[in-house]
Prior knowledge:
The protein is an alpha+beta fold. Helix content is about 30%, strand content about 15%. Strands 1-2 form a two-stranded antiparallel ribbon. Helix 1 crosses helix 5 and helix 2 crosses helix 5. The longest helix is centred in the middle third of the chain and has 16 residues. The radius of gyration is 21 Å and the shape is elongated. The relative contact order is 0.15.
Amino acid sequence: TLQQEGGRKLRLSSSQVMRLAQGLYERGFITYMRTDNVALSEEALAAVRGAVTSEYGQNFLSPAPKQYQSKSKNAQEALEAIRPTTPLRSPQAVQAELNSQELALYRLIWQRTLASQMADATGVTVSVRLGATAADATDCTFAASGTTITFPGYRAVYVESASDDADGDGTQEALLPPLAQGDRVP
């Protein structure tokens, strides 16, 4: 996941991500990065939850500690998940000690670590279906849906990237206008 997100968000190759992570590990910024484990130690959980509270406030903290399970049967889980060695050291606190690529990778790890213990995002989803008749008398149906985030939760610190939107799938964010059943739409 570190290599995938490093590629998507930072536009780095897997080898570049791992080289940067190795440097961060050797200098004491992150825990060992050659692990597939997704669980944090009890000590790390407490530190991360403290960092969430101090950075974002109590309402952004999940009600109970979250422990994740690996989905891979052959995962290398001898060590805990990749995380900052001290979650309270924000990217701003270490920026003078790291070059731009190191800082970007550290920020990614820090954000994902904090997000893992934050409250879920909440929102309201609206779906609209419009019916129309084409000039040749063919019935047409158009659909649109969207979600308005009412509480950002973990999204305040980290939003996982999807594959590039440049794939040409035509999805993009836009606000739906106020609509009511029976409205005529231009």
